[in-house]
User: What shape does this take?
Amino acid sequence: MRNSINCVAEFLIQTKGIDIRCYDDLYVRKLIEKRLQSRGLDSDFDYCRLIDTEENEVIEFLTALNNTYSEFFRNTFTFEILGQFVIPELTKQKKEIRIWSAACAAGQEPYSIAILCDEYLKSTAKSNRFRIFASDINKAGLTKASEGRYSENALGNVTLKRLTNYFERFNGDYRVQQHLKDYINFS
Assistant: This one.
């Protein structure tokens, strides 16, 4: 069991310069088992050989390794602290506020931050500008984030007021309004 993890880890370090040893062994093991099943392979040895010979499998493995889960206002307490303390303090210190949302997945976090900033600026009539830089290594996630289109289920933590102020109905889903998108650079 540990041999397949070591095999994949060594291969990725040597060929891609990517070190997966920081991931939990059980998480990597389950991922390898899923990849074995999806490719119809029986043994860890077969998977090690596959990852050595097929570049697409390396891409699939690395994509699956990354956690792409996110949601709007995911940690309520954190966003309350941002809205009540951090953003007001930043606006006292700077005219332009720059925020980096690393590993932004499908964009829920940077849009949540943009909503907080916009609400604060509107409530105080301050003239600060803010820029949110949102990045991720998953190109499909970035495409979704740039589109700013989400199902109703994805908006569970968004209040009705925020839904009305920052989203519009679009083909059965909700789309982030353009004025909010303008604050964010995805890359």
User: Anything to note?
Assistant: Residues 76-93 form the longest helix (18 residues). The radius of gyration is 21 Å.
